[in-house]
Each structure stands twice: as C-alpha cells, then as structure tokens.
Amino acid sequence: MLQNEFDDLLNKYLQSKCTPEEESVVLDWHQSLIKASKIEITNDEQKILEKKVWDKITFGINNLEIKTKESKVVSINFWRKSLRWSVAASILLIFATGVYFKYFGNRPQRFFTKKNGEIVIPKDFNVVKNIAEDSKEVILPDGTHVLLSQNSSVGYPSLFNKATRDVYLLGSAFFTVAHDSAHHFIVHCDHVETEVLGTSFEIKKNDKTNMIEVAVSTGKVAFYEKSKKIAANNMTQSNSIILKPNQKATYNPTNSQFVTTLVEEPKLLSTLEHKPDTIRFKYLETPLSTILAELQAAYGVAIKTEQINLKNCHFTGDVTNQDLYKKLEIICQATQSSYELQGIDILIKGQGCN
I want to staple 248 with a disulfide (CB 3.0 to 4.6 A). Which of 104, 215, 299, 343 is the partner? Predict the structure, then answer.
C-alpha cells in the first residue's frame, strides 16, 4: 500500500468510515507500531508527554456521546469511537515521544540549547542530561567517571578515537579522568576549556553571572580561553593557567580574567589520592619553620612567612584532626601571628621570635 493510500485509510478510520476489513488493517498497523517502538522514558517524562497529548485530543473525547440503555450496557458505537481515539492518542504519543528524544533525550544531537544561544557539538556525539534532583553518574568510553549535577548536560563520542578526548559540558560536573598520557582529556564549557592527562576536578557554572569555576582535587589541570589556547606545557599568557590539587580558578567572561585561589576546604593529598593517611601533626616545642614545611608538603600549598624571625617561633600541640585553616589558626594564636590567603599562597604575618 502506498503512503498516500494509507494516509487516506487512516483518515477514514478516524472519521468512522472504514469497512471492517479496512479497520482491521489499521488496528494491525497500530499494534505493530507499538511493538516496534524501543523508546524508553521515565514515569515523569511519560506523564509530561501524556498530558500534552491528551490536551490536544480532549475536545474530541468530550464530544463522544455515551448512549446507554436502562440495563447500563454501553453502546457498541461508543466502544468503537473510544477505540479510535485510543489509537489516535497512542499514535500521537509515540510521535511526541520520538520528537522529545530527538531534541532533549539521551540521543545524538548537535547542540546544547542555552538562554543566550547554542553550544555547537559534533553531530555524532551522545548527550546525557540530568533532570533528577540528585547528581547522575555517567561513565565515558575511556572509563572516565562524570558526576553530573542537576540540570546539567554532558556530550561525548561513542568512542575516543582522535588525538584528544573531547567532551562538552553545559552546567556543572565532577570529573575523575582515566589516565592516558597520549590523549589529553579536554572539557569544552562556554568560552573556556579544561585540559588534563588523568586527574579529578570539578567544573561549576554560575547561571546568574556566567562565571565558570574549576577546582582541582588530584593531578594537574590547564584552564584557558578557547580563543587563546596554547600548549599545556607552555602556559605563559595571563589568560592561561595551570591548577594543582587544592587550587581553583574562576573565569569571568565579562573581562576575560581568571582569579586563582585555594579551595574552601583544602584536603590532605593522601586523602585526595585515596592513600592511607599516616601523618600526624603533633608537635613539642617544634620550630614554626618545620611545621610550615610539613603542612606545605601535606596539602600541596605554598606557605610563606612575612618576617624571617617567624621561623624562630616554636609550637606545642596536636592539630592532627583539624582542617588546614583551623590548624593555621591555632598555630598562629600560639605564636602571636596571623595568616591570609594571597591567591594560591598562604602568608604568615607577625613580628616573629628572637
């Protein structure tokens, strides 16, 4: 049967003009269509689609005349009309579901839709969007784990077979990247790119300010503007930086500037690398120079002193169970000094000891 002939037949069916034989053809086609569909959607997504479908056909259903006899037996005409509307509804639902997944689901698509435009991605990339309240884990073909935040999307190829492993991010996510020294892993996010070999880091997008923040847990991360991309081992421009564990940077698209500092809660490197933590920060009249050197090595942060005499001060106490900033606060109180953050460095200020 030709397409135009079938269209005419379907139209006759919806108008109650089919012969029994023609009606049988339509119903057989309807059943085969449902069985052939492999689309899977969540209950919430199905409810949304069904509401849209039934909004469109409510008028027709409300105009069906239900004729009953005194024995309350519903007429055959009503059941035939109801069946026709059921077929029409399911056909429209299948069509709507296909359209939904074409543009919004986990199917290949060419762009992320944004309020102020689109981010173009390769047409053969897979796209996963997290519409749940909790974070969603996505495992990429190379074994990289992506913890996708709510209302965020990630695009990636079915196989990483190029010189670099490129993924696209709209929103926020935490990446634990599988190590591959021959193929750099690059996250494209708005006007910036984050490039690594194998590490873990988090990218956050502020929807109100459009600022993008990258915080590093392990390894080394290159963070730069797409328009100013240079080799990761030769980052010398002001708009291209290298981040190490416990460091973060925020990119402001308004002035194309990066601001670097430490993360809110620096972690021990052994903890970040999932290694046994055996170091203890228990001191007995220990020189401040020794304590600061241990903290610097344990957290991977630079700690400097303003006055050379500060290194002559001594500290006694156990700060093992305190976070880095609390450790510094306790030590500074005992040595009559203070500390402040200067970018990714910590500066100890005070008169020192003789």
Answer: 215
Query: Please, which residues bridge with residue 248 across strands?
Result: 215, 261
Which CATH architecture describes the domain 128-262?
A: Sandwich (2.60)
Torsion sign (Cα): 177, 181, 185, 191: positive
User: For the whole model, what pTM was predicted?
Assistant: 0.63
| Domain 269-349 CATH class label | alpha beta
Residue 347 has pLDDT above 90, yes or no: yes
Report which of 14, 25, 4 is spatially closest to residue 87, judged by C-alpha positions. 14
Q: Report d(CA 90, CA 59) in Å as an integer.
A: 16
The CATH 2.60.120.1440 portion of the chain extends over 128-262
The boundaries of every CATH 3.55.50.30 domain in the chain are 269-349
Query: How many helices (H) and strands (E) in the chain?
Result: 7, 21
The answer to whether the CB of 250 falls within 8 A of the CB of 259 is yes
